[in-house]
Write a structure and sequence with these properties.
Elements lengths: L15 H17 L16 H6 L1 H4 L3 E13 L3 E8 L2 E8 H4 L1 H7 L7 E10 L5 E12 L15 H6 L1 H7 L1 H23 L3 E2 L5 E2 L11 E4 L4 E5 L4 H9 L4 E9 L11 E9 L4 H20 L3 E4 L2 E4 L9 H9 L9 H10 L12 H7 L1
Parallel strand pairs: 3-5, 6-10
Antiparallel strand pairs: 1-2, 1-4, 2-3, 4-5, 7-9, 8-9, 10-11, 12-13
Helix pairs in contact: 7-8, 8-10, 12-13
């Protein structure tokens, strides 16, 4: 199928600015003809690509309504194939002039990759066995004025990916999957804690003092009070005050702000879950952590076995528990239990290639933590 090409993404066929100019001219023509794609955007779809593909036997020859973005197309004389991407995945459309009408088909041929459409048609399999939707009607719901990154090279610039997450979501299905799994995990975790009679709370994001962690804060100013304010670097202190106030079990899923370095694993703004329980100890916290992680794996993936970075991990409940000293001794070969001196501990860490952070004090505890 045809893919989008533009100079900005490494394809020389057509200048990026020329593509944008042509698309804006198409939008102007649509508005002039009374078909402004930004006026009526409602479309009552009743299905998605994944459900149709997963349950083809139930949908074969039945009419469905789906909506999504055009991500590929092969335009022919009287019939065309289109790749449609929706929230759940991708599916092929078969659009024929005799079915949708001559005027609609003529307009359809001018649509671009990136445009959003609504389709009504019946489900079938092509001669090659691909599950598709045979369009009986198709409607332009929104016009894409900027071209998508070139199909074969994709969106590979990490800086651009992180700055334009919306484009990353369009081009990389795994990114969309991560968003969905994150949402499902938070939903599961919230229910898990609620079922344990924890109370979810919201604590102040703006504080008059910095506390709860060792990190550099973002500083702002309260005009009315004429005092400096600090965006929170942790939720710890106000949650502990709630425990003091008699709320025995509290938790917060909240945003944290730290004015420090950035890399793919560290962002100045991120989400944490922090919880506190009266009359409990660290064993109870370990039980909760295990229950949330293993339970979420089973709920979301249907199995306790997951894969990370090519390695399979078994999250079946009943995790082995050991101290950090024992873990480092077993897996790194350094017995910190036999070391009592800070300098010796740091040297032991460095001997196995572990460097302490520049900002960290050169202590026994930090050396153990770094390992």
């Amino acid at each position: 199928m045809e893919q989008n090409n533009n100079k900005k993404n490494g394809a020389p066929e057509q200048d990026f600015n020329e593509i944008v100019k042509i698309r804006r001219e198409k939008l102007a023509a649509l508005k002039e003809s009374g078909n402004d794609p930004f006026v009526i955007t409602k479309f009552d779809f009743d299905n998605d690509s994944k459900n149709i593909k997963d349950n083809f036997e139930d949908f074969e020859n039945k009419t469905v309504k789906i909506a999504g973005r055009i991500v590929a197309r092969r335009i022919m004389g009287k019939a065309s194939f289109v790749g449609l991407s929706d929230t759940s995945g991708k599916i092929q459309l078969y659009v024929r002039r005799d079915d949708v009408g001559e005027d609609v088909y003529a307009a359809f041929k001018k649509w671009d990759i990136g445009d959003i459409v609504g389709v009504e048609g019946f489900v079938f399999k092509t001669q090659t066995g691909e599950i598709s939707v045979h369009a009986q009607s198709i409607k332009l719901l929104s016009k894409s004025l900027l071209p998508l990154p070139e199909k074969f090279h994709g969106l590979t610039n990490n800086d651009l990916r992180f700055r334009q997450r919306y484009v990353d979501l369009i081009m990389n299905e795994n990114v969309k999957r991560n968003f969905i799994i994150r949402s499902q995990f938070i939903k599961f975790m919230r229910k898990y804690l609620d079922d344990m009679n924890y109370i979810e709370v919201e604590t102040p994001v703006l504080n008059t003092i910095v506390g709860g962690a060792a990190a550099r804060p973002f500083v702002t100013h309260h005009n009315t009070l004429n005092i400096p304010m600090y965006m929170r670097i942790a939720t710890e202190l106000p949650l502990k005050r709630l425990i003091v106030g008699g709320m025995d079990r509290v938790y917060e899923i909240g945003r944290i702000f730290r004015n420090e370095g950035m890399d793919p694993k560290h962002n100045p703004e991120f989400t944490t879950v922090e919880l506190y329980q009266a009359y409990a100890d660290f064993h109870d916290m370990m039980d909760i952590a295990e229950g949330i992680i293993s339970g979420a794996a089973k709920e979301i993936h249907g199995t306790y076995e997951v894969e990370w970075m090519g390695e399979k991990i078994d999250l079946t409940p009943g995790w082995r528990r050991l101290t950090m000293v024992d873990a480092v001794k077993e897996y790194a070969g350094v017995d910190f239990g036999a070391i009592s001196d800070d300098e010796e501990a740091v040297k032991a860490a460095e001997a196995i290639g572990v460097e302490l952070a520049e900002t960290a004090d050169r202590t026994w505890g930090n050396a153990l933590y770094a390992c």
